[in-house]
Each structure stands twice: as C-alpha cells, then as structure tokens.
Specification:
The chain is mainly beta. It folds into 2 domains: 129 residues, Jelly Rolls (Sandwich); 139 residues, Jelly Rolls (Sandwich). The protein is 4% helix and 44% strand. The protein contains 1 helix and 27 strands. A 7-stranded antiparallel sheet has the order 1-21-18-23-16-13-12, with no helix packed on it. A hairpin with a 5-residue loop joins strand 26 and strand 27. The termini are far apart.
C-alpha cells in the first residue's frame, strides 16, 4: 500500500502536524561582518526592525545592528533550533547564554515562561557569513506546560549520524537530532519534552542524499504523524510521483517509504511524533490549552517579564573572541574549542 498521504508546496512557515506546531526555515547569505558583528553592507532600503524581505539574499529580521531576534517571551512549548551554517548567540532571562552553530542544536523548554534573544553574529570579517537555521516549535502536553524553563545543548560532535549505502554505492547521510535509527540513539532531549518518552516516537532528522541515491525510511507505529520536507535539491521520485524541491511529503509512518534522488544532491528534514491530542490555543509567543490560559500568560508576562532581562541590551551578542559555549543558570559553563 502507498505510504504517501499528501504532497504540498512549502510555504514561508512550514506547516507541521501534532505534536509539532510549525517549523521556520531561515537561509541567508550574509556579507562580511563589521566591528559590531553586523553586516558590512548598507542597511538602506530595509524595514529595520521588521526586515523579512530577502534583499540581496539576506534579512535582518527584528535586529537593528546584528541580524536576529532580540528578547521576546515564550510559554507552553519548546523550541528546537538546528543551525547547519553560521552562529547564534543566545541570552535569556534565567541568566543563561550560549553561542552555537555549524551543526549544533539548542533544545529549549519554555515551560512556565522565559525571555530569550537569538542573534546571528557575523564573526567573519574577511569573507561572507552563510547562514542556515531551522527552528521547530514542539508542543508540551497540558501537564508539562508550566514546568520550569530549561535549555540544553546538543553539540555537533555528540549528535549521531547514520550513513546508508544503496545497492549502487550511493550514500544517504541521516543526522539524528531526536529518535533513533539503526541502533543509534539521539542525545537525550530536554527532560520535560514530549520527545523524552520513547513511546511518543518523536524523530527529528536532517537528511542528505547523494545524486541518484535511494533510501527507504523505516516504518514507525500506526497513528504516528510523519512529514518529510524536501528543501534543497532538484527533484526526487517516490511511489510513481516526481516531486520537485520545496515540497512537503506527508506519509503513513507505519508504511515504508522509498525515495530515489535525482541527479543533484538533495536535503530533507523529517519530523515525526505521536500526537498529543489536546486543544491548542496560540497567541504570538504563547501556546496553551485555552483562551483563559493565554490571558493569564499575557498578564503574568506584563507583571513579571518572566524574571526580567539581565543583559545589557535586548539584542545582546557575545564578544567576538568567544568560541562556541553554553552558560547555564547555575553558573556552569561549557566551552568548545571552535
């Protein structure tokens, strides 16, 4: 029986299925950086503070000097931020901070409430600063929506990969951010995550297929939601369909799906998980189960700012000399050499 349920074009924000809320995909070809870690190119003609138009191949987003997203609140869900290229500077209302990228992943549980900023410092002042990021919003069930905030780093060096070789010797490389494949298990997610229970079969994979490679996705349990996002390449073939790039493939997860790549290297993101099956009420940065809970979240944020902002500015970036690191609320700091 066919595994494919539906094929549809990718929008600006990628649609997802329960337990996921959505996925934002950002790819920017940033120019050389200046002394403030912003772009050397002129910002003239940009809607600074709301720059989402890819002028010259890049955007400032909500940043005014450095691209990115200055301090903003969240409650009731998690962010999984996969940075394939470039760097992100994280700062939050708990006093935690970090610089991560080039394959690192940050898993943040907003829980009962946190403010954080996500800035994209352009450290390279000699050549361009290419950037590619996915941010996935993963819902929390009702009994976990008010857990204490938490953030965890999944460093590139620790994230497992599987290389599958087809009958013709062509390779498919799968990076396992959540879930498991061929007896390799992902690094543990944040402790209160829906993904922390293996019974929920949450999987987040990035996939790179060599030209003409063939790969079969293993099946999961019936009733698990699975989507495959084909975001870079030319075209693929599956179950009699020729599917062009920038399409989402929604599948029956309990049925094996085989994809044959075309003549160009192709890249995919897979999102899979057991649905939470609870009401979802979203308003901006808050995701709860009812409208009254949304009102409570807004009121509490107005009163407490979820702990305030301990950093010098809302678009805080770390020193240029700082490498990849994570500073946790208890004062523990982990530094990476690169």
């Amino acid at each position: 029986m066919d595994a494919i349920i539906k094929i549809k074009p990718l929008g600006v924000i990628w649609e997802t299925s329960d337990p996921f809320l959505f996925c934002a995909y950002h790819e920017d070809q940033y120019p050389k950086g200046n002394e403030q870690l912003g772009p050397t190119s002129s910002l003239a003609g940009r809607n600074i503070g709301q720059d989402f138009t890819p002028k010259d191949g890049w955007r400032m987003y909500h940043g005014t000097t450095v691209p990115g997203f200055p301090a903003h609140p969240h409650r009731g869900f998690e962010t999984v931020t996969i940075v394939q290229k470039g760097l992100v500077d994280h700062s939050d209302s708990l006093g935690a901070a970090g610089r991560f990228g080039n394959g690192d992943v940050q898993w943040m549980t907003a829980g009962k409430g946190v403010q954080h900023s996500e800035m994209f410092p352009l450290l390279n002042d000699q050549e361009e600063n290419p950037f590619l990021l996915f941010q996935i919003w993963l819902n929390l069930p009702k009994n976990k929506k008010m857990v204490p905030p938490h953030f965890k780093m999944l460093w590139n060096e620790e994230i497992p990969t599987v290389t599958s070789v087809d009958k013709n010797g062509n390779t498919t490389e799968i990076t396992i951010i959540a879930g498991n494949l061929q007896e390799k298990n992902a690094v543990d997610p944040a402790p209160d995550s829906w993904a922390a229970n293996p019974e929920n079969e949450v999987a987040i994979w990035t996939i790179k297929m060599a030209p003409n490679a063939e790969f079969t996705f293993p099946n999961a349990s019936e009733g698990i939601n699975r989507s495959i996002y084909f975001f870079k390449g030319n075209e693929i073939e599956s179950e009699g369909y020729t599917i062009p790039v920038n399409h989402q493939i929604i599948t029956h997860s309990h049925k094996e799906l085989t994809i044959k790549n075309g003549t160009t290297e192709s890249h995919f993101l897979l999102l899979q998980g057991k649905p939470i099956n609870e009401p979802v009420v979203k308003q901006g940065p808050f995701v709860m189960n009812s409208q009254s809970e949304i009102r409570e979240a807004i009121q509490e944020y107005q009163q407490t700012q979820f702990g305030g902002w301990p950093w010098p500015s809302y678009d805080h970036v770390h020193k240029k000399s700082k490498g990849r690191f994570a500073l946790y609320p208890d004062g523990t700091e982990i530094n990476k050499n690169t």
